[in-house]
Each structure stands twice: as structure tokens, then as C-alpha cells.
Amino acid sequence: MSMRIAVALAATIGTGLLMSTAAEARPEMVGLHAGEYSPGTIVVKTSERRLYLILDDGHAMRYPVGVGKSGKQWAGTTHIEGKYRYPAWSPPAEVKRDKPQLPDVIPGGSPRNPMGVAAMTLSGGEYAIHGTNVPGSVGGFVSYGCIRMLNDDITDLYSRVSVGATVVVTR
Questions:
Q1: Using CA atoms, how far apart are residues 138 and 58, in angstroms rounded to an integer?
Q2: How far apart are CA 42 and CA 6, in angstroms?
Q3: What residues are labeled active site?
Q4: Angle at 149 between CA 28 and CA 162, to 5 degrees
């Protein structure tokens, strides 16, 4: 009888751990004094590997993100230039130089496509805020400068922001 209880307890704890991991994949409402940013602004804090969508002066939605690896990070202000579901991906010249075996285009929806289920391109460069088919990379210094999100999180953010939204990336 005690063995059954132990097995049931272990199963319950294991399920709880799995559920807490899944909970981290959802956006989280947080308190944030954001007086310098207007509602709808996206703020990426590279050192925290977090993206904040400013809701008002005291609240933001917070998401975990993957950011540029060493030597590929950037900071500045830009805006969302376009929004795309299941975008095709063409490796930028720098990526193609480092990985010449990559095809010129990877179709949207392909498991090899690094953009995941959605992408929001940023003006002024080859960067985007996008999903990923490698969820373990979120939370790290992993990209060539793009902001990488879990597919569920980019889907949520995509529905909350419009083309033209301001994006501020800080270190």
C-alpha cells in the first residue's frame, strides 16, 4: 500500500514539475514602472533575456527570449515593420557565410525554418522578433541578433501589437 502511495506521489510531483515548466512558456503580467515608454512599446532587456510589452505605467507582459550571442548583440530603438505567419526564411549574408550549406530559402512551416510560427520584422536591418522550432534556445545568447521566442509566446505577442509599434532593445 505504501508503494502505491509513493508511486502516486511521484507521479503527482512529476506532473506538477511538467506543468510548472509549461507555465513559464506563457506571458506573465508583471509590475513595471515604465514611465518613459508608452503603452504598446516592446522593450527587450538583453541582459535579462526578457521582452516586456508595456501595458501602462505600472504593468507589462513579460516573456522569456533568446537574444544575440556574443558579438551579435545590438541596442537601439526601431519599430515593427511587418507581421508574418509561417514566414519563409532566407539566411542573411552573415549567416550564409558562416553556414554555407544552408539553402537560399527555407519554406514557412518547415521544421528546419528557424522563424517558427510567426515573425515580426524590425525596420532598419535584417532582424526580427520571431518564434522558434528549438524551444530550448529561448533564454540564451543564441542568435545573430534576432529576438527568439517560444511559439506560444510569439503567437500571443503577435496578437497584441501592430505594425509600427516601437521596439527598444537595451543591454
A1: 26
A2: 46
A3: 130, 146
A4: 80
Q: How many residues does the chain have?
A: 171
Between CA 19 and CA 41 the distance in angstroms is 30
Give the three cell numbers for residue 147: 529576438
Listing DSSP states for 3-32 in one string gives HHHHHHHHHHHHHHHHHHHHHHTS-EEEE-
Give residue for cell 528557424: 114
| Nearest alpha-carbon partner for 169 in 1, 18, 24, 51 | 51
Which pLDDT tens digit goes with each residue over 9-61? 333 333 333 333 333 557 899 998 778 899 999 999 999 999 999 999 899 99
CB atoms within 10 A of CB 70: 6
Amino acid, res. 93: A
